[in-house]
Amino acid sequence: MNDHELAAHLASEAGRILLEVRESGKHHGKDLGRAGDAEANALLVAALRELRPDDGLLSEEEKDSPMRLGKPRTWIVDPLDGTREYGEGRSDWAVHVALAVEGQPAIGAVALPALREVLRTDRPSSMPPAVATPRMVVSRTRPAREAELVAEALGAELVPMGSAGAKAMAVVRGEAEIYLHTGGQYEWDSCAPAAVALAHGFHASRIDGSPLLYNQADAYMPDLLVCRPELAERALATIAQDALMVCRSAGS
């Protein structure tokens, strides 16, 4: 099984377990999220340690080890992205399995278990046709100020959605055209979605336009932009102009 196949297989299997845990009726509320997270994580970690013992590993649900920093290949996983949505019985949650090679989001799979779909880096689909009014997926609770500014500049409609993986895959699946996040994330939140988006021909970067780098000592990643390539330049320019105005205001 090559790395692409392994990522997709593990994301699918973790998703299957999460659905079984949710449908069992044994857990409710926050306990459901914790139980699902634990079981999916156990599967992913055990499989990767057995099948790829020489690679590094970073999981949201495991204690981080600095040993991964010396590895050219590190698996970065989120067993359950969107715990709240999962616990609420919604469909906008995901499983992320990615392989960063020399810091690049090279290989990955994002499972959307409630939709019975796995998007993967080795099976890119055709980019959906452009639409007249772009749709921007944002937080269900409070869209970031930068997202609202970019939406205004693009004439985009805001679409509330759950997990980071669900939002990024909404762009890949043609349900939205742009996903902009500035509220702070970690490497496991975006590595697999970024790998899949890039493989499918979409733009994925930091909001200053710099590349996304993974397997860093500090796994915190403040921001992310995933969008159709023709929207990237205008979105990044809007963010840069806003940052310049904020700096000028602070200095006056």
List the helices and strands and how they pair.
Elements: H1 3-24, H2 29-51, E1 56-59, E2 73-81, H3 83-87, E3 94-101, E4 104-112, E5 117-120, E6 135-139, H4 145-154, E7 157-161, H5 164-173, E8 178-181, E9 185-186, H6 187-199, E10 203-205, E11 220-221, E12 224-227, H7 229-251
Parallel strand pairs: 1-2, 6-7, 6-8
Antiparallel strand pairs: 2-3, 3-4, 4-5, 8-12, 9-11, 10-12
Helix pairs in contact: 1-2, 4-7, 5-6
Protein name: 3'(2'),5'-bisphosphate nucleotidase CysQ
InterPro entries: CysQ/Inositol_MonoPase, Inositol_monophosphatase-like
Pfam family, one: Inositol_P
Largest sheet: 5 strands, mixed
Biggest sheet strand order reads 1-2-3-4-5
Total domain modules: 2
**Annotated CATH homologous superfamily of the largest domain:** Fructose-1,6-Bisphosphatase, subunit A, domain 1
Which term fits the overall shape?
globular
The CATH topology of the largest domain = Fructose-1,6-Bisphosphatase, Chain A, domain 1
What does this structure look like?
With 252 residues, this protein is α/β, with parallel strands linked by helices. It folds into two domains: 3-120, Fructose-1,6-Bisphosphatase, Chain A, domain 1 (2-Layer Sandwich), CATH 3.30.540; 135-251, D-Maltodextrin-Binding Protein, domain 2 (3-Layer(aba) Sandwich), CATH 3.40.190. Helices cover 42% and strands 23% of the residues. The protein has helices at residues 3-24, 29-51, 83-87, 145-154, 164-173, 187-199, 229-251, and strands spanning 56-59, 73-81, 94-101, 104-112, 117-120, 135-139, 157-161, 178-181, 185-186, 203-205, 220-221, 224-227. The strands form three sheets. Strands 1-2-3-4-5 form a five-stranded mixed sheet, sandwiched between helices. Strands 7-6-8-12-10 form a five-stranded mixed sheet, with helices on both faces. Strand 6, helix 4 (145-154) and strand 7 form a beta-alpha-beta unit. Helix 1 (3-24) packs antiparallel against helix 2, helix 4 packs across helix 7 (229-251) and helix 5 (164-173) packs parallel to helix 6. This is 3'(2'),5'-bisphosphate nucleotidase CysQ. InterPro entries: CysQ/Inositol_MonoPase (IPR050725), Inositol_monophosphatase-like (IPR000760). It holds the Pfam family Inositol_P.
